[in-house]
């Protein structure tokens, strides 16, 4: 397949399960439950604040959500916690794919799609 978005991802994204995530709902649930997604963002936020020698006020309440964003592994579309959007992520939340790229590559990469509620259930 000749597609500008393909840059060797078949080496690490074949035959994976992806969880369909809807923002900001995914973040709201993560913040309320302090689940693995929240913990990942919180860790990144604390590390950033410490490295930049910023005050703890940057970590108050939901402010930490603004420390996180990801890009689609194929087209680099941006996912953020505060913008209404849909993305697909792996269980470890390492790889993120936008809906268009997910649709375009789902069959050729052999992906399985699950809902984000299963992601929360499996991590608890």
Can you characterise this structure?
It is a single chain. The protein has 124 residues and is an alpha+beta fold. It has one domain (9-123). 36% of the residues lie in helices and 19% in strands. The protein has helices spanning 25-33, 36-52, 99-109, 116-123; strands at residues 17-23, 69-71, 78-80, 85-89, 96-97, 112-115. The protein has a 4-stranded mixed sheet. A two-stranded antiparallel sheet has the order 2-3. Strand 4 (85-89) and strand 5 (96-97) form a beta hairpin. It starts with 16 loop residues before the first strand and ends with a helix. The mean pLDDT is 90.
What's the layout of helices and strands?
Layout (H helix, E strand, L loop, with lengths): L16 E7 L1 H9 L2 H17 L16 E3 L6 E3 L4 E5 L6 E2 L1 H11 L2 E4 H8 L1
Parallel strand pairs: 1-6
Antiparallel strand pairs: 1-4, 2-3, 4-5
* End-to-end CA span: 39 Å
Rg estimate, integer Å: 15 Å
The outline comes out as globular
**Structural class of the helix and strand makeup?**
alpha+beta
Enumerate the strands of the largest sheet in spatial order, edge to edge or round the barrel: 5-4-1-6
Tally of structural domains: 1
User: What percent strand?
Assistant: 15-25%
Low-confidence stretches: none
Q: What structural keywords apply?
A:
single chain, 124 residues, alpha+beta, 4-stranded mixed sheet, two-stranded antiparallel sheet, 4 helices, globular
What's this entry about, in short?
By secondary structure, the chain is an alpha+beta fold. The protein is built from four helices and six strands, in the order E-H-H-E-E-E-E-H-E-H.
């Amino acid at each position: 397949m000749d597609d500008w978005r393909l840059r060797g991802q078949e080496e690490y994204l074949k035959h994976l399960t992806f969880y369909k995530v809807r923002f900001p709902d995914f973040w709201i649930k993560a913040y309320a439950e302090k689940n693995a997604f929240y913990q990942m963002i919180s860790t990144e936020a604390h590390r950033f604040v410490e490295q930049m020698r910023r005050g703890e006020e940057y970590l108050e309440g939901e402010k930490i959500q603004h420390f996180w964003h990801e890009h689609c592994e194929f087209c680099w579309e941006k996912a953020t916690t505060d913008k209404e959007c849909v993305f697909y992520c792996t269980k470890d939340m390492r790889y993120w794919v936008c809906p268009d790229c997910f649709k375009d590559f789902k069959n050729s990469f052999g992906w399985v799609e699950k809902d984000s509620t299963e992601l929360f259930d499996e991590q608890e």
